[in-house]
Specification:
Blueprint lengths: L4 E4 L15 H14 L3 E3 L8 H12 L6 E7 L11 H8 L4 E7 L2 H8 L3 H17 L3 E7 L1 H7 L1 H14 L3 E6 L6 H14 L4 E5 L6 H10 L4 E4 L13 H11 L7 H4 L2 H12 L16 E2 L2 H9 L17 E2 L7 H10 L9 H15 L8 H11 L8 E12 L2 E12 L2 E9 L2 H13 L10 E9 L10 E8 L4 E8 L2 H19 L5
């Protein structure tokens, strides 16, 4: 099995996504997470003299170094006005202590003339000088050939000169960049093949996703002989993003037989994807291949029946290979097969046509008629099954709650009070919040956390309200969906009522009950 090296640039390219702003602690946490997964190269950032956060990142990693991965510092070639040994940006790269330095250089003559506004010959000298100098300082050097594929299509001769300058300087890798993300896969394949024929240096690919082809282009380059793929977790990056390593890695390993991670490390992929999403404070993309919540979700009755008999019939790989799991979505399309499959996943054994299965399916149909939807609300469905089999344990009893919203000097303030009976003790708490639902959530947590401290790990990541009967105006029935998360799992709950507060309470209550039920300590 041939090896393809994975180079992660989430901490630099990924942080250029509009919605992402990593703190120093975020970057350190992600670096160690990737290290544990077995990523061989981790790019930490751009340690320019003015970039204090990235400079501190490299300083901190000297104290707590990575165990498996090799750290990479990213920067550009020397500037035209400096000798290489006098360029402060080049010195900053060396000061990081990183064993590898990635140097980006201009490949497209358009950029050399119109952006840098220097001669083509000077650009070649800058590339060669920079790499040679860094090699003299005992660093491995990866040359990122910026805009390479666009440049090759416009002026192939000059791109060859650029790669030759990098090779003459001693570059350890030539990384071909589709910086604008607009090259088609057949061109990526053909051009990469041409580079492989003419240069005896390992070749990598760095693709952007402006045409939704970053993953496909990365695969095309590997099929042409590239042995390194640069990308980011979840495809984060500027504009439309970068090549998504959560798709690239399993595609290479499970489909093409390339060695990227050990099977045990590959099984961490879903966890890493969702944890990075959590750190980035970006909702996880549920439809992402391999690692998304819906990647192995089945809804239609015929599909569920087939998957129950032969998973291969509707799944291209086993979900556990990437650390994901099969999900059966309960809905109005659900049949007996869906109920049986879902029950089996929960540890219940029911025979086709049994009274238990019929009872549950009838309850689902009745509730959906009232407006409930169990798509994405597996936790509420789980509690429904527990109650049906009389296996539900009540962790607390609601005595009552009240929510007040008032205008205080032009500012809306929400306050909730709640009375619960917990282990025989009446607990009465009050809390404010950003809106009535948040206030109610805060009051509930305040009451429960002294008895169930693990609830501190929960936080709500999504809250949706949908009006079900718009013809009735403000008296319409509403459905509330809540998605909750802790350090190890994500779950959804649902509530329906003519009152949005009551519907929210139902979904919130199910969320807490499910967490307590799932914690082995409280079973």
């Amino acid at each position: 099995m041939s090896k393809v090296y994975i180079y992660d640039t989430t901490l630099r390219d990924g942080s250029q996504a509009e919605e992402i702003e990593f703190s120093l602690e975020d970057k350190l946490a992600i670096a160690h997470l990737l290290d544990e997964m077995g990523v061989p190269y981790i790019e930490g950032g751009y340690p320019a003299p003015s970039n204090t956060k990235d400079l501190e990142f490299y300083r901190r990693l000297k104290k707590t170094p990575l165990k498996n991965a090799r750290l990479v510092a990213f920067g550009s070639t020397r500037r035209a006005k400096y000798k290489v040994e006098e360029d402060p940006a080049i010195q900053a790269l060396l000061d990081t202590g990183a064993p590898i330095i990635a140097v980006v250089g201009k490949t497209w003559d358009l950029h050399v003339r119109e952006v840098l506004r220097i001669s083509l010959e000077e650009n070649l000298r800058m590339i060669k000088d920079s790499i040679h100098y860094l090699k003299s300082k005992k660093r491995d050097v990866f040359f990122d050939a910026e805009h390479f594929y666009d440049a090759y299509l416009k002026n192939p001769e000059y791109t060859r000169q650029v790669l030759q300058a990098a090779t003459d300087g001693g570059a350890d890798w030539l990384v071909l960049c589709d910086t604008n993300g607009g090259t088609m896969s057949d061109k990526i394949n053909a051009i990469t093949l041409e580079v492989k024929k003419n240069f005896n240096v390992p070749v990598g690919i760095h693709a952007h996703n402006d045409t939704e082809l970053a993953v496909a282009n990365s695969i095309a380059a590997v099929q042409a002989g590239a042995t390194m793929v640069q990308g980011t977790i979840n495809g984060y990056g500027e504009r439309c993003g970068n090549a998504n390593l959560c798709s690239v890695i399993p595609n290479l390993q499970l489909k093409l037989g390339k060695s990227c991670l050990t099977p045990k490390k590959l099984a961490k992929l879903t966890h890493v994807s969702r944890t990075v999403s959590e750190i980035a404070n970006v909702p996880p993309r549920e439809y992402n291949s391999y690692v998304g919540m819906n990647a192995f979700a089945h809804k239609g009755g015929l599909h569920v029946d087939a998957v129950r008999k032969t998973p291969l019939s509707y799944e291209h790989v086993k979900p556990e290979l990437v650390g994901n799991e099969r999900r059966i979505i309960m809905s109005e399309q659900a049949g007996m097969a869906s109920v049986l499959f879902k029950a089996e996943q929960m540890g219940f054994k029911m025979k086709p046509g049994s009274d238990e299965a019929k009872s549950i399916i009838e309850k689902v149909k009745k509730l959906e008629h009232l407006g409930y939807k169990f798509e994405g609300a597996d936790a509420s469905f789980r509690l429904l099954v527990d109650r049906n089999f009389k296996q539900h344990r009540s962790f607390y009893d609601l005595e009552g709650f009240r929510v007040i919203v008032e205008n205080r000097e032009g500012k809306l303030v929400s306050e909730a009070t709640i009375k619960l009976r917990i282990k025989g003790v009446l607990v009465h708490t009050a809390a404010e919040g950003d809106g009535p639902i948040n206030a109610m959530d805060n009051a509930l947590r305040k009451a429960l956390e002294p008895y169930y401290p693990k609830l501190k790990k929960i936080h709500l990541v999504d809250f949706k309200v949908r009006v079900l009967e718009s013809k009735t105006g403000t008296a319409a029935k509403v459905r509330v969906f809540i998605e909750s998360r802790d350090e190890s799992m994500v779950w959804g709950t649902v509530g329906v009522s003519n009152d949005v507060i009551e519907a929210s309470w139902e979904a919130l209550n199910d969320s807490v009950e499910y967490k307590l039920r799932s914690d082995k300590k409280w079973r």
